[in-house]
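Is flavin mononucleotide placement plausible here? Inputs below.
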Amino acid sequence: MQHRDDEDAAALWDDLPVPEVMPVRTMLDEFETVNVLAPLVRCSKLPFRHLVSLYETHVTTTPMILAEEFSRSQQARISDFTTSRNERGVFWMEPRKTGAAAAMTSGVASLSLDTAAHPEDREDNIEAGPSRRVDKTYYVPPDGGQHDRLPPRPTPPTKHSRLVRGALIAQMASPNAASLADAAELVAPYVDGLDLNCGCPQSWAYHEGIGCALLRKPELVRDMVRAVHDRLGWNWPVSIKIRVDSDLKNTDTLIRTALQANVSHVTIHGRTRHQASTEPVSLPDIKFAVECVRGEVPTVANGDLWDLTDAKRMVDETGVNGTMAARGLLANPALFAGYTETPHHAAENFINVSNDYGLIFSLFHRHLSYMLESRMYKAEKTYFNALNSSAQCVEYLADRGLDAAGRRKIPMWDARRGYSLLA
Ligand SMILES: Cc1cc2nc3c(=O)[nH]c(=O)nc-3n(C[C@H](O)[C@H](O)[C@H](O)COP(=O)(O)O)c2cc1C
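Reply from A.M.:
I modeled the complex. Tokens:
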């Protein structure tokens, strides 16, 4: 009987179109809501990216990768970047309602998954103005195979919904253009774009000339973006993630100068270099930065996004195209799917993806304690934080009703609908 039910359920998914694959810039231009996982050192690694992509996070970002190390050391490459054919989600997305977006839609060719992705196959090594649209995808699994994800539901929520594959961005930090271009070239076949970190506030980073040190070096930022374009093509997607400056004139200069190098989009964290994350984010400053962009490329807002109300307020008050969450997703990986706290199945999914991909215990433990914090009393937190193996954590959570070991039956799963992620 069970078998029959499975077959009936599977038939619902038979008529799905092939998901459209497009650059993040196009997603931001064309769709009403684009949700982004922020780069998170140590945390936005493959298992966590896969997890949030099960819950309406359309674009995910790697942790900041030090470009120089990455291009120089095989060990750094192994530890800093891992991906999987199936890590990107597949989503029903709603086109923007405005006439402008509708016009853009008609000019964009969405590509199927078998588009050539090797640098030598790219046709985009041509000069073009900053408003030239990108219509190519850059990541295809090396063996050219299809990936196996399905959207959360088999039928489109509205008659306008389009089926779209999510995107993965590698974030890099570099004090110079050459290292960035070298690292970009290595990672390019596996990602949909590169983001230049212009916002890390830590003093070691500042002294290394990376992160926030770039906020007042607009020409260097422009040259770095250009160097990647020189290497990979003028339209190869390179975005920047910035913090606002206490003197907004500097923000204006930074953005306008970066636009000269055809940045693909701009992410704006609405805190200055000296503001701690406990201080509230400034939506007026984000709005100012959005105005500096003058609609030339899409924008993403970041800072203090804890639920969908925050996301809506950000869009309404700043005019950005998409929103990015960091600590909000750590606390609740299903935030963008509308959950107000981590649902049980998200924790179960996390345990399963971590087992399938492999994740060191310290990170596994840390993620679980972030995501279950709001569900635990103080004494439980103390107990849970003292556990020192994955088995202990899973057992403890099983006693509290989490069924990670059970058959994976969550509808928000992928093509094999829960039986196995990687088989
Ligand atoms: C644990 C942690 C790691 C972070 N790592 C990065 C990083 O690698 N690159 C980056 O640009 N920002 C990094 N950030 C900053 C976030 O991406 C984000 O800009 C910041 O947390 C504000 O967003 P939030 O208010 O949603 O947390 C990190 C933040 C946290 C909490």
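Short version: The CA atoms of residues 222 and 258 lie 5 Å apart.
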